[in-house]
Amino acid sequence: MAKHFASKPAAKKSSAQGLNEHRARKRFGQNFLEDDGIIRRIIKCISPKAEDNLVEIGPGKGAITQHLLEACPTLQVVELDRDLIPVLLSQFIARYPDFSIHQQDALKFDFSSLLGEPANPLRIVGNLPYNISTPLIFHLLSYHGQVRDMHFMLQKEVVDRMAAQPEEKAYGRLGIMVQYYCRVENLFDVPPESFNPRPKVDSAIVRLTPYEQLPVVAKDVKTLEKLVNTAFQQRRKTLRNSLKQLMPAAAIEALDVDTGVRPENISLAEYVRLSDALFELEQG
Q: What is the DSSP string of 81-123?
C-alpha cells in the first residue's frame, strides 16, 4: 500500500474526477505543467534511476510524477495542497506500492528525515511556486551535505539571478549564496504556454549540484550571509559605504579587497575574505 503521511485524511476521488475538478490555487502559487515535450526534456535532464532517493516537491496533478515513478518506484513527494493527495493516490497507488506522499509545507519540512538507513543522498525535483521559490531555495541549501543534486522549474528571472556572475545586473545575494554551496547550470527556458493557468512570466529549468568540497570556505557562513545581505541592501553604494554599519572605517581600509566598487563588482571568493575579516573582528 502506498504510504500517505497527510496530516488529516482526505476523501478519495477517481483520478479523472480529481483531475477535472481541481483548479490551480493562487495562494499555493500553482501553475500546472502540461507540455509533454517540456516534460520529456526535464526527465531527460534528471535521468532518474531505480536506486535514487528521489523527492519531488509540489507534484501537482502528477505530470512529472508519472515519469519519475516509471524510473524510480520509491519516489517520495511533498505536497501542501491536501485536495491533491487523493488525486495522486488514485493515479499511482495500484502500480507503485512504495510511492510515498508527505502532506507538508516544503518550507518547514525536514528533508533529512527522508535520507533512510543507511543514508542515501537526496535527489530533489520540483516545479516550485514562484511566490516561495527564494526562501525555499535557502531552506534546501541547509541540506547541501545530504543532497546529490536538485532540478527545479523556477521563474526565469530567479534562475538568472542564481547563475549570475560578477559585473552582471542579476548578480546578488541569491546567486552568491547558491554558488557558495552548489554548481549552477541554467538548462533551458520554458514558455508560459506550457502551463495551465499560464503564468505572466517565463520559466527556466536549473540544475544545482552541491559541491563535495566547497571551492571557498568561510570561517562563519552566518557572517557571510549577513555581510552579503548588508551589501546588496544598498547596491548603488560602494562597499566601503555599505560596510560602515558593520565595521569601523579603519578596519575597512585594511581589507585586502577593493571596497571602492559596488557590491556586484566583486567575486564570491572576495566576499568570503570580507566576511572572514568581519568574523575575526567580531570575535575580538
A: -GGGHHHHHHHHTTT-TT-EEE-S-TTT--GGGGSTTTT--EE
